[in-house]
Amino acid sequence: TSEQIEHLHRRFKQLSRDQLTIRKENFDSIPDLEFNPIRGKIVHAFFDKRNLRQESDGLADEINFEDFLTIMSYFRPIEMDMDEEQLDRFRKEKLKFLFHMYDSDHDGKITLQEYRNVVEELLSGNPHLEKESARSIADGAMMEAASICVGQMGPDQVYEGITFEDFLKMWQGIDIETKMHVRFLNMETIAHCY
């Protein structure tokens, strides 16, 4: 709505300190992100050209308000009047955004190492969990992904990574539409991703 866009524009101006663009360092002033274990991945996602719906690959140095709106659109909640086709497209857009957060080398696959990195980051705040345990969790999840996406693999087969099609299969039946959204509480906090 126009009211939401105005609200986002105030947020953008606050983050950019009244400049025309936002740079990665502007995200340092967001208290809610400070303690998020995947803070770097979230900030990175704002500058990922794939998420900005640009034809090129890589990272943008800065984003303008239109880019900011594009990124924030991935987090909007579902609308009650959406038909099945719109819901499916909406769901795929959200999942593509998440996929890009994992696929850090931009090759179209989430490799075991990329998945390990994310799991280790997520679990880094737990002082009782050793790095080796985090790796075991990631390895187990990757084996489960392979079984869902490829089925029974032979002993000499290697699962090279999760493609976006695999990612869609893995998230089938999980209600991402209502869980991945942004809720604005006040001017000091930017976003909560559920």
From TrEMBL:
Task: Specify the protein's topology with respect to the membrane.
Answer: Lipid-anchor
Subcellular location, principal: other
Listed SUPFAM superfamilies: EF-hand (SSF47473)
What name does this protein carry? Answer: Calcineurin B homologous protein 3
Task: Please cite one Gene Ontology biological process associated with this protein.
Answer: cell differentiation
Molecular function terms in GO for this entry? calcium ion binding; protein kinase inhibitor activity
The record's section on PANTHER family has: CALCINEURIN B HOMOLOGOUS PROTEIN 3
Q: Could you state one GO cellular component term attached to this entry?
A: cytoplasm
What the entry lists under Gene3D superfamilies is as follows:
EF-hand
What SMART domains does this protein map onto? EFh
Query: Where in or outside the cell?
Result: Cell projection, Lamellipodium; Cell projection, Ruffle membrane; Cytoplasm; Membrane
What is the taxonomic lineage of the source species?
Eukaryota, Metazoa, Chordata, Craniata, Vertebrata
> Organism source for this protein?
Calonectris borealis
Q: Its family?
A: Belongs to the calcineurin regulatory subunit family. CHP subfamily.
According to the entry, every stretch annotated as the EF-hand domain falls at 90-125
Arranged from A to Z, the UniProt key words for this protein are: Calcium, Cell membrane, Cell projection, Cytoplasm, Differentiation, Lipoprotein, Membrane, Metal-binding, Myristate, Nucleus, Protein kinase inhibitor
Query: Which InterPro entries does this UniProt record tie to the protein?
Result: CHP3, EF-hand-dom_pair, EF_Hand_1_Ca_BS, EF_hand_dom
Q: One Pfam family this chain carries? A: EF-hand_1
